[in-house]
């Protein structure tokens, strides 16, 4: 599902809201999650999951094309861990199929 599809579904489910207002709300939520992660904070949405940032140490990598050693700098990556309710819901639908 893309962001525009999410906005469309939410607008259809809430006919009392304008689509442009739903888009502003969705964008604000995503921007706040991104800002919190950029600050190094953890974002937890109960029943859905938790977003956090993990640090990857600097290392020596290898260029797969040439085989040369390459220095890879330290970096931070976003990490998502599903909540129990979401995991249970996904596994329940897999069992029914």
Going across the major beta sheet, what is the strand order?
A: 1-2-5
Give the count of helical stretches.
Answer: 3
Termini separation (Å)?
21 Å
The coarse overall form would be: extended
Poorly predicted parts: none
Mean pLDDT: 93
Element layout with pairings:
Elements lengths: L2 H11 L5 H20 L4 E3 L3 E8 L2 E4 L6 E4 L2 E8 L1 H13 L1
Antiparallel strand pairs: 1-2, 2-5, 3-4
Description:
Helices cover 45% and strands 28% of the residues. With 97 residues, the chain is of the alpha+beta class. It folds into 2 domains: 1-41; 49-97, HU Protein, Chain A, CATH 4.10.520.10. α1 (3-13) crosses α2 (19-38). The longest helix is centred in the first third of the chain and has 20 residues, at 19-38. It is extended.
Give a short summary of the structure.
The protein is 45% helix and 28% strand. It is α+β, with helices and mostly antiparallel strands and 97 residues long.
Question: Which properties best describe this structure?
Answer:
97 residues; alpha+beta; single chain; extended; two-stranded antiparallel ribbon; HU Protein, Chain A; 2 domains
């Amino acid at each position: 599902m893309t962001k525009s599809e999410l906005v469309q579904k939410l607008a259809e489910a809430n006919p009392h809201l304008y689509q442009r207002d739903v888009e502003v709300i969705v964008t604000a939520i995503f921007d706040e999650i991104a800002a919190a992660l950029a600050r190094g904070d953890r974002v937890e949405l109960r029943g859905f999951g938790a977003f956090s940032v993990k640090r990857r140490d600097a290392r020596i990598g290898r260029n797969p094309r040439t085989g040369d050693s390459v220095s890879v700098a330290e970096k931070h990556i976003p990490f998502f861990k599903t909540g129990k309710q979401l995991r249970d819901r996904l596994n329940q639908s897999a069992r029914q199929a």
